[in-house]
Amino acid sequence: MIFDPNTRNWHIEKTMIKVDATPFAKGGLRMAYHMLDLDLVDRENVTYVLKVSIDPDEDVDVYHRDVEMQLFAKGIAEQFNYYNPPKKVGFVGAWLLKLVKRGGQVCAVERFISGPYRKHNNNYGFVNEDERNTPQAFSHFSYEVCKHQLLVCDIQGVADLYTDPQIHTTAGEDKGDRPFGKGNLGQKGIDQFLKSHRCNAICRYLKLPPINPRFEEIGTVPVDNTVMQKEIERINIRVFEVGGRLAMGGLAPEGHAPTPRASKSEHLPLLSNKKQTTKITITAEESGSNCECCLVM
Ligand SMILES: [Zn+2]
């Protein structure tokens, strides 16, 4: 299933995949398998990651929230890049797959990114000891551009292509039902970030209100140490109820529309002021036998 963040609808397409028999990674909640899209394998050399819950009774809604969260973070990344920081950031696209031949099991799918994987911060104030400027500034940017209503953290991935973020929101504090799942620690999580964050050269370039500024100039700095002429344009965030739970959306400022994507592996920006829909068609085979699957969002 593929999620269209503009309409908040999921659309379904059938596809065929080939999945490794054994996982290449195992976390606390999910196992990760390499996966090939047999329909595209001749045209693009892309490997995907299939993430399956260890808990066989995992609520499908958890998968939905994870995909929504990653696409939301991807939209914030597009806004960050709009201001031409020295290093652009991105999140890999994510969608869901329903394995018809495995009793309709639902799993999450995203493009596999190869290279050294790093976690730059987490959802409770941890900052990697190398304290790279770009990922830390991106988290701070997300907080400012969304008018302190949310924070994108748990920044991790290869170089500045990220995956598996967490978003803390102030929405839902009173109802005990926060958007974006269990890792959303609300204001408490935001406060932990604000305690440990130290503003760096990229925060200064973006004219973000300073938090514990670092005085030494280390890491990535803008050319000639410039700052932007104007302040960043804040995004209006909407909070609404969908399917009995809270969700969030936003609209990019006029003129900030992200570049439309043509590739299946890079699609669905969240915050666009132009309507975009991307379709995928995949064909799949599991462990040697063909499997008809539905992409669900
Ligand atoms: Zn900062």
From TrEMBL:
Keywords: ATP-binding, Kinase, Nucleotide-binding, Serine/threonine-protein kinase, Transferase. This is Alpha-type protein kinase domain-containing protein. The keyword Transferase applies. It comes from the Eukaryota. Coiled coil: none annotated. SUPFAM superfamilies: Protein kinase-like (PK-like). One of its GO terms (biological process) is response to differentiation-inducing factor 1. It comes from Arcella intermedia. Belongs to the protein kinase superfamily. Alpha-type protein kinase family. ALPK subfamily. GO terms for molecular function: ATP binding; protein serine/threonine kinase activity. Residues 2-211 form the Alpha-type protein kinase domain.
